[in-house]
C-alpha cells in the first residue's frame, strides 16, 4: 500500500489513515474538523487508491472519516487564498477540480468495490464522494447537501455523481435549493444503501465489506466494470455487451470452480483466474 499514512508515527498527522485486514482496506479521511478535500488530502487519497488497485490482498475498499463530519467538500480557504495569484486563481481552481474529478473516475474504474461509511455531514464534493462510491452506509444522524448555490458556486462537478445516483427530480432539488437532506431522505433518493444507528455503523459496513471480500476478486472486477459500462448504452446494446461479458466470465476458472463448488455443496476456493 501507499506509505503516506503507514510511515507516520502519529495517525493524527496522516491526512488519510490506511488499514488493511482480511481483504478490507479502510481509508479514513483525517483532516478534521471539516475533512476538507484539500490538494494534499486528495493527492494522498489518489495514491492510496492507486496502490489498492495493484495490491492483490485488497478485495474491497471502505472510505470513512475521522471526527464529526464525513467531508465538507473542497477547502474553500485554500482556494480563496489563490485569488491573489496573477490569474486570479484559475490554474489552481482547474487543478483542484481536475484532481477531484480524477479521484471520482478512479473510484468508478477501480476493479474493486468501494463502500462509503458516512457519519455526519457530507456536503458538496463530500456528497459527490459518497454518491460516487459503489455502496454507501450512513448513520441515522447523517445529512447530505450540495450548498454551492448558496454562495454563488453551483455544485456542477458534484452534480455528475449525484444525478447518476439519485432520482433526477431529487438531484435537482438538492442542487437548486442547497438545503440539506436527512439520512432517510438520502436513502429514498438513492444516495445511500442503508441507514443505521451510529453504534452499528462499523458493524454493518464491516458486514458488507466482509461479504464482498469473500467473493472471487476476478468476478468482482468483471461485474463492477460491466455495471458501469452497460448503464448508458441503449437497451439492445447493453444486452449484447453483457451477454459477451457473461460468456467470458463463464470461461474463467473461478466461475468453473464456483459452479462446481455449488453443485458439490462445498465452499469455493478462489484463484482470481
Strand and helix map with partners:
Blueprint: E1 16-21, E2 24-29, H1 39-54, E3 60-65, E4 69-71, H2 76-80, H3 90-109, E5 114-118, E6 121-123, H4 125-132, E7 135-139, E8 143-145, H5 156-165, H6 168-177, E9 181-182, H7 183-189, E10 194-196, H8 201-213, H9 217-231, H10 235-250, H11 253-263
Parallel strand pairs: 2-3, 3-5, 4-6, 5-7, 6-8, 7-10
Antiparallel strand pairs: 1-2, 8-9
- CATH architecture descriptor of the largest domain: Alpha-Beta Complex
Oligomer: single chain
Reading the helices and strands in chain order gives EEHEEHHEEHEEHHEHEHHHH
- What's the overall geometry? globular
Low-confidence stretches: 2-9
- Whole-number total of structural domains: 2
| Protein structure class | alpha/beta
Amino acid at each position: 500500500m501507499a506509505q503516506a499514512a503507514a510511515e507516520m508515527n502519529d495517525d493524527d498527522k496522516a491526512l488519510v489513515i490506511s488499514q488493511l485486514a482480511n481483504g478490507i482496506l479502510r481509508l479514513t479521511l483525517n483532516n478534521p474538523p471539516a475533512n476538507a478535500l484539500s490538494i494534499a488530502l486528495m493527492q494522498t487519497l489518489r495514491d492510496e487508491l492507486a496502490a489498492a488497485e495493484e495490491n492483490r490482498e485488497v478485495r474491497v475498499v471502505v472510505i470513512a472519516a475521522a471526527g464529526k463530519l464525513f467531508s465538507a467538500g473542497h477547502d474553500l480557504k485554500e482556494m480563496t487564498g489563490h485569488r491573489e495569484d496573477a490569474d486570479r486563481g484559475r490554474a489552481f481552481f482547474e487543478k483542484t477540480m481536475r484532481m477531484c474529478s480524477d479521484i471520482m473516475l478512479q473510484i468508478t474504474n477501480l476493479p474493486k468495490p468501494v463502500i462509503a461509511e458516512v457519519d455526519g455531514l457530507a456536503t458538496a464534493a463530500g456528497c459527490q464522494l459518497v454518491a460516487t462510491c459503489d455502496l454507501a452506509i450512513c448513520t441515522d444522524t447523517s445529512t447530505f447537501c450540495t450548498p454551492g448555490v448558496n454562495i454563488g458556486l453551483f455544485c456542477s462537478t458534484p452534480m455528475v455523481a449525484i444525478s447518476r445516483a439519485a432520482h433526477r427530480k431529487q438531484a435537482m432539488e438538492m442542487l437548486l435549493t442547497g438545503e440539506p437532506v436527512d439520512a432517510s431522505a438520502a436513502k429514498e433518493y438513492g444516495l445511500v444503501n442503508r441507514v443505521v444507528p451510529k453504534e452499528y455503523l462499523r458493524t454493518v459496513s464491516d458486514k458488507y465489506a466482509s461479504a464482498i471480500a469473500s467473493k472471487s476478486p476476478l468476478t468482482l472486477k468483471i461485474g463492477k466494470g460491466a455495471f458501469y459500462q452497460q448503464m448508458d448504452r441503449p437497451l439492445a446494446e447493453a444486452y449484447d455487451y453483457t451477454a459477451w461479458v457473461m460468456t467470458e466470465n463463464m470461461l474463467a476458472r473461478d466461475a468453473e470452480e464456483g459452479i462446481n463448488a455449488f453443485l458439490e455443496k462445498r465452499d469455493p476456493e478462489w484463484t482470481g483466474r
